[in-house]
Amino acid sequence: MPEFWAIIVSIILVLIVYGIVSSKLKDRKRQKLRARTIPMITEYPTADGAYNIHLSDGRKFLDAKLIGTVEGEDASFSFAGYEGMVVIELSSGKKAFVKKSAIRYLEEA
């Protein structure tokens, strides 16, 4: 009887390993196909560049510099309930705190 359970456990372990390996192979194949059709770009906005920031409501901050983000406990303002903000420096030199979800897109200035 112990041999029966050993065989069952072995089959289960083999199926788990097969599932992991086949999943990894499928992901690798999907990544190769995606790389051939639309290449991945590793560029991202930096703090030293100027950007035109377009918000969801249509407003724009032209020629603004990204300073950083406010995260965690510091980002939960009681008056607005914001869950994280982006801090930008406007062309006038003033700072603006923008809700992350309000940003539609960034454009290099």
Q: Describe it for me?
A:
The chain is of the alpha+beta class and 109 residues long. Helices cover 33% and strands 30% of the residues. It is built from 1 helix and 5 strands, in the order αβββββ. Strands 4-3-2-1-5 form a 5-stranded antiparallel beta sheet, with no helix packed on it. The longest helix is centred in the N-terminal third of the chain and has 36 residues. The radius of gyration is 25 Å and the shape is elongated.
Overall residue-averaged pLDDT value: 86
Structural class category: alpha+beta
Helix content, binned percent = 25-40%
Number of helical segments with 4 or more residues:
1
Q: How is this fold's topology laid out?
A:
Elements: H1 2-37, E1 50-55, E2 60-70, E3 85-89, E4 95-99, E5 103-108
Antiparallel strand pairs: 1-2, 1-5, 2-3, 3-4
Key descriptive features of the protein:
30% strand; single chain; 1 helix
In short:
With 109 residues, this protein is an alpha+beta fold. Helix content is 33%, strand content 30%.
